[in-house]
Write a structure and sequence with these properties.
The structure holds two protein chains of two kinds. Chain A is mostly helical. In chain A, 76% of the residues lie in helices and 1% in strands. The model of chain A has no long low-confidence stretch (mean pLDDT 87). The chains are: A mainly alpha, B mainly alpha.
């Protein structure tokens, strides 16, 4: 009895039930749902979306908001593609360049937020425009087409229903899960989000934690951007344009408290899974794709209302 | 000894503090850039460019007002674009399909905007979450609902009586829509400086707890502000439709996000604090003017519209940073 109660209190259990119920319903009513190709499509969407969601989750953990997730993803994506297309950099170097650029963007976000004391929302709204503007300015809204075949192949290769992309995302998810639970910095992140003043008094270097969180968030967004290039097979400057809602919806559905201090990697993953499932269901049922927008908005409201209900603090 | 010091201190000092105010600074910078572009850019001073400039400015001012009235309460309204487009699609439908006369159709649009804003405000108050989250969700909700209901089709056979409003000029180079924006500005200024509701809004925004204890209906003022924001967003949408000559679902970008940058820049540059409780209508107008003059001038200089967005983001950062610095220095001087 107590195990059930304990399970119910976790962030992810009720979500897992919801996901299982939804998946079962779809499997029973739509024969195409369990086909290898359909599962592959869902897993690919999951691989990309989970990184975006985790990128935002890390910032929600410190009680802040990062609007520039999509813009960083887009900038790194075109830089990654452009480095290989225009400069002819070998793939490992291009990946390194992308990661470094992502880290730099994150460091800028974190540094400005910490040193000026400005609301991270405003800072990332401004950097969103700056990064997006640079992306469009450099590419002149034209994608980079000359992506090496190895990258393109990686983006579309699969073993049965499991895309190679999932390996990268899976590693990132596992690493982040360990980080949030075991690493000192991970615990410090949650401490700063939970009660910044108490964290400071406990001897935590709040500035370092904030900058580290933003760098981590940007790195995840950068990886997502590069995976998107592999998937799409071109360096599209519009990568990241539609990441904003998703990046908030999944962690919030997954139990993240917007005030900070409490996030759940498992919950976020399940949140992404539910969103991917809904998307897939709507395609199989031939429903208007914009209904997804509607549902996502409603889902966020419902999730927030539920979390207020659970924790009326 | 003490009396002589006291007498000496009672010299009359001319208070030039207002010269250092935010609004004057903004006005000076704007005039500076205007003169700069006038002299170095050939196309800038043409009557057509000035007309286009004042037309964009008229719309951006109202978008700025829409965000401003929510900023006063210490909240944010990310759904300005989504509400604006949704309301204008209702208006477009009313004009083109239902054949309603112009005033009724416009009223329908404004009411839709106010209703959507009312939903935002009520959700914020009832769920006791920050309006950021609520409007993030509703921006998706409203935009999605609008696309589903309109099937993403535009209304491009709007009556001439409406589309003509977007092309009227005065003095050959000033769009008449700017007079509408200024009239709205005067109304808002009067609201905040001369009405009880305005005082209540400022109090609720500055310190909700204290306001509540003083008898201000804080929750009701928040809902009112969001509804007002929605109505203003609808007005901006109508003006944009008049300018475009059609009601397009894409006029504010994906989820209405194209409006976010002008919506924030104008009030923030103008001195409306993000923390709430302080408002500056004239500042918002001046802030919008600066942004529009800069964007227009840069475009005329062939800087490339791509880089303008990056530049505006930089300005937002600088503006907020300077504001923070000013507040910090004022704090220090008080101590």
């Amino acid at each position: 009895m107590t195990t059930t109660l304990a399970l119910l209190r976790t962030d992810w259990f009720s979500l897992a039930i919801a996901f299982a119920v939804g998946a079962t319903a779809l499997a029973l009513t739509q024969p195409a749902f369990l086909s290898t190709f359909n599962l592959y499509v869902m897993l690919t969407a999951f691989s990309l979306s989970v990184l975006v969601a985790l990128s935002q989750m890390v910032i929600l953990a410190i009680g802040q908001l990062n609007l520039s997730v999509g813009a960083i993803g887009g900038l790194v994506a075109v830089t990654f593609a452009g480095a290989m297309d225009v400069w002819g950099l070998p793939i490992p170097l291009a990946i390194l360049a992308g990661l470094l650029l992502g880290a730099l963007c994150g460091a800028i976000n974190g540094a400005i937020t910490h040193w000026t004391g400005l609301n991270a929302f405003v800072v990332t709204l401004a950097t969103l425009s700056i990064f997006k503007g640079i992306t469009i300015g450099v590419t002149e809204a034209q994608p980079f087409y000359g992506i090496p075949d190895a990258v393109k192949a990686f983006g579309n290769a699969r073993v049965g229903a499991v895309p190679y992309l999932l390996l990268v995302s899976g590693l990132a998810v596992a690493a982040l899960w360990v980080f949030m639970r075991r690493a000192v910095l991970g615990r410090q992140l949650l401490a700063v989000g939970g009660n910044r003043h108490a964290a400071e008094l406990s001897g935590i270097d709040v500035g370092r934690v904030i900058i580290a969180a933003h760098v981590l968030s940007a790195l995840l967004a950068a990886i997502a951007g590069m995976l998107a290039v592999a998937r799409l097979q071109i360096g599209q400057p519009t990568i990241g344009d539609d990441w904003l809602i998703l990046s908030f919806a999944a962690p919030v559905i997954g139990g993240a408290i917007l005030a900070g201090g409490h996030v759940s990697v498992a919950g976020t993953c399940l949140g992404v899974a539910i969103i991917v499932l809904i998307n897939n269901a709507l395609v199989l049922l031939n429903v208007d794709p914009f209904v997804v927008q509607l549902l996502l908005g409603a889902l966020i409201l419902a999730a927030v209302a539920l979390s207020r209900f659970r924790d009326p603090a | 000894m003490a009396e002589r010091v006291a007498v000496a201190d009672r010299r009359v000092r001319l208070d030039l503090g207002w010269l250092a105010s935010n609004e004057v600074g903004l006005a000076l910078v704007t005039v500076g850039f205007f003169v700069l572009f006038w002299t170095i850019t050939p196309g800038f001073s043409s009557p057509f460019n000035l007309f286009a400039l004042t037309r964009v400015l008229a719309i951006d001012i109202v978008i700025g007002f829409s965000m401003m009235v929510v900023l006063v309460t210490g909240g944010l309204n990310l759904a300005v674009g989504a509400i604006g487009v949704a309301a204008v699609m209702v208006g477009g439908w009313a004009m083109q399909v239902a054949g309603l006369p112009l005033p009724l159709a416009a009223a329908a649009a404004l009411l839709t905007g106010a209703a959507l804003g009312w939903i935002n405000g009520t959700a914020t108050v009832v769920m006791r979450v920050h309006s950021f989250v609520v409007t993030l969700a509703t921006m998706s909700l409203f935009f999605g609902a609008m696309i589903v209901l309109t099937e993403a089709r535009a209304f491009n056979e709007l009556p001439q009586s409406f589309t003509r409003l977007g092309t009227q000029r005065s003095f050959g180079f000033v769009s008449q829509m700017i007079f509408l924006s200024l009239a709205v500005g005067v109304a808002l200024w009067w609201l905040f400086h001369h009405t009880v509701l305005g005082r209540q809004i400022l109090a609720a925004g500055a310190n909700p707890k204290a306001a509540r204890l003083s008898g201000v209906p804080v929750e009701r003022t928040i809902v009112t502000c969001h509804a007002l924001s929605g109505a203003l967003a609808a007005l901006a949408g109508l003006m944009l439709a008049a300018r475009n000559g059609a009601a397009l679902p894409s006029m504010a970008g994906q989820l209405g996000m194209d409006w976010l940058l002008p919506a924030f820049l104008a009030p923030v540059l103008g001195g409306t604090l993000l923390t709430g409780g302080v408002v500056s209508v004239s500042g918002t107008i001046l802030g919008a003017t600066l942004v529009v003059v800069l964007s227009n001038g840069l475009l005329q200089l062939r800087v490339g519209e791509f880089w303008v967005q990056a530049f505006l983001g930089l300005i937002l950062l600088l503006a907020v940073g300077l504001d923070r610095l000013r507040a910090h220095l004022i704090e220090r001087r008080r101590r």
